[in-house]
TrEMBL record, chain A:
Residues 98-294 form the ABC transmembrane type-1 domain. Belongs to the binding-protein-dependent transport system permease family. OppBC subfamily. The gene is nikB_1. PANTHER family: DIPEPTIDE TRANSPORT SYSTEM PERMEASE PROTEIN DPPB-RELATED (PTHR43163). NCBIfam families: Opp1B (NF045469), Opp2B (NF045470). It comes from Acetobacterium wieringae. This is Nickel import system permease protein NikB. InterPro entries: BPD_transp_1_N, CntB, MetI-like, MetI-like_sf, Opp2B.
From TrEMBL, chain B:
GO terms for molecular function: heme binding; nickel cation binding; peptide transmembrane transporter activity. GO terms for biological process: nickel cation transport; peptide transport. This is Nickel-binding periplasmic protein. GO terms for cellular component: ATP-binding cassette (ABC) transporter complex; outer membrane-bounded periplasmic space.
């Protein structure tokens, strides 16, 4: 296990270097001159002189690899430079926007787990019944509705019509519910289907037959089937965590949630390169780490995978 | 399994608790006359409202900071300066400052504070290059405690108007300066205005409270809650839910036209629309391969059906424009040649220019198709819709117009390099028109400059504009404006579309909603609740 862990950790180094390189190269792929962008976002009219001055200030005249090495060195120390727009440290801006996103993603994950497990197990137990079909139908429709539309519909129903919840923002009590539900909608059907299908598959396994022969109750059998079906879902769920965090962009805009998604969209519109690079890098690192954690978790559950 | 079951129950309970808490948080309809706070929704955060920089929301800057003068009802009126005298040569402005005024941190507002602020603005002249005024200031002089003298290099005529603009000539407490200046940021946002910024949470909200020591009439409402809601649909739902009392914005910024019409028709809210403030026009690039021909530009003017745009897209909420600047704008009451929609005339002009109808309906000349691009900032949906109407108009006369909606920065890149055939041009409205708008035509980074570069007399145009700004004789100035605007009109560089208006929607019971001269300001201080 330890050896496996060390091997995986070592593998992460080239992956992370590759990612950081791509995040950095973005600046060079863009048709806009970063120096000009930095001037323009502050409502200054670009001239040859101020662009040259800004290029020097941002170190854009240095060779590409020198700039990359400097940026990476600073990034490793948590310094992602300063935003072109408000000149504040990027790390500080991200640190401020990350907690609301983590909170939103966390509540969303709770909803996904509760609903998916509940509906998934029910569907598997009542396989092919009307309840199974109806529940799956509802969940699939919910997933098929685009997030921005679902958000507006939920807001209209629960805020404007029923007056149960506030429309948006983060300050009012219960404000997290609507964005979290909207965010969860897109994932629920995946897990319902995953849990249902794995459980149905497991139900056909020999150990279930053996359990029945032994005279175990249906409740006990379902419990064993559920336990054995969890692994696939846990792996998928693990990978959904970074996806949830990175996927809040639209939801945060609709629900006026001051998170990292909104920060990223604003940065993209303003071509705030230091902010975009930091966002891409942090999200990529998050994906890589979650992937590692999920793998470690599944190896811990099933030692046979270590050899694989 | 038991553990998991328990966890699920706990999670559900937490969610339900949140929902019930939400019930109590929802607003209830009550007598609005007792309301002490106005909730205003804006798609943008107030950001850094340093009055000497440009990254903050102008309407928020206007709440906290004041200038020596203010522009009201088309006139320059006293603000922090009670009166002033102008020397006979137009080079010296002596301002008598209002006595007894203090910044909200207790610092006195006096000539020394004015000089400190003015020097800080001059110390960052590059940032204010769009405003000629900054380059025209020679010296800031403290005459005595309450007298300040501004010495100019030339008799710059819009001095008093530009001193009243929302930025940069507004005054911040000397205690907020960092290292004796404001260009690298300020340590607080302390002004002399009717409002005090008492709380600001980035990207969430800002709270402005009444300045209890204000020198003028105190605000009638105690608190303004500035709520940040990036999505305009959310703003509308929040209005319906009673979380928001006022929407206010120019050019579809907060309220898009369809929603405005819907709210107006429903009658549940009060809607307000300003007098025409700014000009909306289409720029035709005189330096582009196809549109460099004046006949093609003239043909495009004849081909665009403005009535369709005004009625069909703008729902008659804006006035049709036949000249670039409205006749109400100073120096613009000129009898220009105007062009009325006439497809036949457009076709005739294209024929004369050598563009003959092709087999697919698109005109051709020397094997080249008559195909042009209109680029716009894709964030402005209304501009996209107008573009499709123009596209259909031009197709009817054999010009294929491709529409290119781009992100703001890409759009600006294209504008700066002149890589476009058609683009939108919006003037800044009163009190910036005509001087600041016309003045910006000389700046290469502006679309106007790029579109005019192909004109034979561009150099003369720029030189005359420079002279206008420092011409002390009003009638000579008027003549020069006439020459410049007539030349531009006759060169068909602009297709005037409409004169835009600012719109506002408020709840019933919110009174005193009006418009300042500048479309970028919101006169919250005049608003009050009543039944």
């Amino acid at each position: 296990m330890k050896q496996y862990f060390v091997k995986r950790l070592l593998w992460m180094i080239p992956i992370l270097i590759g990612i950081s390189f791509f995040a950095f190269i973005l600046i060079n792929l863009s048709p806009s001159d970063p120096a000009e962008v930095a001037i323009r976002v502050n409502e200054i009219t670009p001239t040859a002189e101020n662009v040259a001055q800004m290029r020097e200030q941002l170190g854009l005249d240095d060779p590409f690899l020198t700039r990359y090495a400097t940026w990476l060195g600073n990034a490793l120390q948590g310094d992602f430079g300063h935003s072109y727009v408000n000149n504040k440290p990027v790390a500080q801006e991200i640190a401020k926007a990350l907690p609301p996103t983590l909170y939103l993603a966390g509540v969303s994950l709770m909803i996904i787990v509760v609903v998916s497990v509940g509906v998934g197990v029910l569907c598997a137990v009542k396989e092919d019944s009307l309840t199974d079909k109806a529940l799956r139908g509802i969940v699939f429709v919910g997933t098929a509705i685009p997030g921005f539309w679902a958000g507006i519909l939920l807001m209209w129903l629960f805020a404007v019509k029923l007056k149960w919840l506030p429309t948006s923002g983060m300050t009012a009590p219960g404000a997290v519910i609507l964005p979290a539900v909207t965010l969860a909608l897109g994932y629920i059907s995946t897990y319902v289907r995953l849990i249902r299908n794995t459980m149905i598959q497991n139900k056909r396994e020999n150990y279930v037959l053996y359990g029945r022969v032994r005279g175990l109750s249906e409740k006990t059998i379902t419990r064993h089937v559920f336990k054995n079906s969890l692994q696939t879902s846990l792996t998928a769920l693990g990978m959904s965590i970074p996806k949830l965090i990175a996927g809040t962009v639209v939801i945060e805009n609709i629900f006026a949630w001051p998170g990292i998604g909104r920060l990223c969209v604003t940065a993209i519109f303003n071509r705030d390169f230091p902010m975009i690079q930091a966002y891409v890098l942090i999200m990529a690192v998050l994906f890589v780490f979650c992937n590692l954690l999920v793998d470690m978790g599944s190896v811990w559950i099933d030692p046979r995978r270590r050899e694989a | 399994m038991k553990l998991k079951k328990g966890l699920a129950v706990v999670m559900t309970a937490v969610l339900c608790a949140g929902m019930f808490a939400g019930c109590s948080g929802a607003s209830a309809k009550s007598d609005v006359s007792t309301k002490e706070a106005l909730n205003y929704a804006c798609t943008k955060d107030i950001r850094d409202i340093n009055p000497h920089l440009y990254s903050g929301e102008m309407s928020a800057q206007n709440m906290v900071f004041e200038g020596l003068t203010k522009n009201e009802g088309g006139e320059v009126k006293p603000a922090l300066a009670e009166s002033w005298e102008i020397s006979a040569d137009g080079l010296e402005y002596t301002f008598h400052l209002r006595e007894g005024v203090t910044f909200t941190d207790g610092a006195p507002f006096n000539a020394a504070a004015v000089k400190l602020n003015m020097d800080a603005i001059l110390g960052n002249a590059e940032r204010h290059s769009w405003l000629d005024m900054v380059n025209e200031i020679k010296e800031n002089v403290v005459v005595d405690e309450h007298t300040f003298k501004l010495v100019l290099k030339h008799p710059y005529y819009p001095t008093l108007v530009e001193l009243g603009l929302t930025r940069p000539f507004r005054f911040i407490s000397p205690n907020c300066f960092v290292n004796g200046t404001t260009k690298e940021g300020v340590s607080g946002y302390i002004g002399t205005g009717p409002w005090v910024l008492s709380e600001h949470v980035d990207n969430q909200y800002a709270t402005f409270t009444q300045n209890e020591t204000y020198w003028g009439d105190k605000t009638k409402i105690k608190t303004i809650n500035w709520k940040v809601m990036p999505d305009s649909q959310t703003i509308l739902l929040a209005l319906q839910n009673g979380e928001v009392d006022l929407l206010f914005g120019a050019d579809g910024d907060q309220v898009d036209l369809d929603s405005y019409k819907k709210l107006e028709d429903e009658g549940a809210y009060k809607t307000y629309i300003s007098e025409p403030v700014a000009s909306r026009a289409i720029l035709i690039n005189s330096n582009s391969p196809i549109t460099k021909d004046i006949k093609v530009r003239e043909a495009i003017e004849y081909a665009v059906n403005k009535e369709n745009i005004i009625q069909g897209i703008l729902n008659n909420s804006e006035d049709q424009a036949d000249t670039l600047l409205s006749k109400d704008v100073p120096y613009c009451d000129i009898d220009f040649k105007t062009i009325a929609y006439n497809q036949e005339k457009a076709q005739q002009l294209l024929d004369e220019a050598g563009w003959k109808p092709g087999s697919d309906g698109v005109r051709e000349k020397d094997g080249q198709k008559c195909e042009i691009i209109l680029s716009y900032n894709s964030k402005n949906a209304q501009e996209g819709t107008i573009a499709t109407s123009i596209q259909a108009d031009l197709a009817a006369v054999g010009i294929k117009m491709n529409i290119l909606g781009e992100e703001k920065q890409a759009f600006l890149d294209r504008q700066k390099t002149g890589d476009f055939d058609l683009q939108y041009s919006l003037s800044w409205g009163t009190p910036y028109d005509p001087q600041s708008y016309v003045s910006s035509w000389r700046i290469p980074a502006h679309g106007d400059y790029q579109a005019q570069v192909g004109l034979e007399k561009k150099q003369w145009l720029d030189e005359t504009i420079t002279k206008i700004m420092i011409e002390s004789d009003d009638s000579k100035r008027a003549d020069m404006y006439k020459e410049v605007l007539t030349y531009i009109n006759d060169q068909y560089v602009y297709v005037p579309i409409s004169y835009s208006k600012t719109k506002a929607v408020g709840i019933k019971g919110l009174e005193g909603v009006s418009f300042n001269d500048s479309q970028y300001e919101i006169p919250f201080e005049k608003m009050y609740f009543s039944n």
